[in-house]
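Write out the 3D structure for:
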Amino acid sequence: MGIVERREREREEVRRKILDAARELFATEGYDRVTMRRVADAIEYSATTIYHHFEDKDDLVLALCQEDFTRLLGALSAQEPPSDPVERIRQLGLAYARFGRGYPNHYRFMFLTNKQHIHEAQSSGVQAFGLLRSAVADAIDEGKFGQRDADTTAQVLWASIHGAVALLITYRPEQFPAAPPAPDLVEQTIENGVRGFLAPREGGRS
């Protein structure tokens, strides 16, 4: 390996340390409380080193958003989508929950920190929601969902599974009211959301 290649690899390793440390700090301490110096202290580098890689905190957050929402989009796109749009919605919900529970710090940073001005600009996040919105629109067009607004329906379904995932990665089992969460809480949440939008069949039942 030549000098140029080695330096580039070392630079990427430092950048990776910065991103990983920043994500954890944002997720655990909140966006507003974390400074560039706080990130530098966490990895035992100087603040100057951080600024060699990122212009400011917003630039660092933007890089994290791009990386994490791209990872989410990949998780939602990993499987061949079913032709049935309702089954596609179920599959997307399960994949979304697996991502959130598999990468809790990523998820907290993406959805549970105060960074609205950057969050809204993420094309991968828009594409990820677009997969759900497209499945919902197909379900409406095929008569499997009742006639309703596709955007609102997709938002309701997303809000439902998001709530379940946020609770599962934030609360310990003993913190849930009355009893620990059911092992199939995610599946029940998805099924309840889907059934609420199914169009009545002949005889008046969904």
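The chain has two domains: 1-54, 64-206.
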